[in-house]
Amino acid sequence: MSDQQRFRSGLAWLILALLLPAPGLARAEPAPPTTIEAQADAPAGRLDRFSREAALDLTIDSGQAPDGTSTTRVVIDTRAAFDNKQDRLRPDYARFLSRVGIMLQRHRGTVVKVTGFARHTRADYNPVLLGRRVRAIQVFLAENGAPIDQIKAQVRGVDDYDGPAGAADRAATGTIIILGFSHG
Length: 184
What we know:
Layout (H helix, E strand, L loop, with lengths): L2 H17 L15 H7 L1 H11 L5 E6 L5 E8 H4 L9 H16 L3 E9 L8 H17 L7 E7 L10 H5 L3 E8 L1
Parallel strand pairs: 3-4
Antiparallel strand pairs: 1-2, 2-5, 3-5
Helix pairs in contact: 2-3, 5-6
């Protein structure tokens, strides 16, 4: 056997030894994602990425519910998401919500609650329009992949508001809708 043949034979054995795990040794588990990767893959991170891709400036916050499930809330300003006195979504919000629908389809354990808030005594409050807008978001999510059993829709009084503190005054005017995601 020539030196060149021995070299090739040794190289082949070395490659084979590196590719096959040694008997009795477990394969190494992949390292857990770094904090930035984990945050980007968390629902809040995905929602933030979707909003940036659609060029929207949305308020997104995360927390823990009393029952221990993690929650994420997205504040949608109805004045930006819908034309005046209409219940049809504008294209940039439709793009964002279509991505949310696909995300809900893939994550069967996540439930979204679409909630419109308003103070019923305001003269400029239109409960029918707010209800139609909440329903439009619910139907849009279902049409874009989200299972209907994962989507709840409601209109509540401002006294029941539990969203981000900075949006409480807008909740009283009926100009926001909160998407509340529960995953756990």
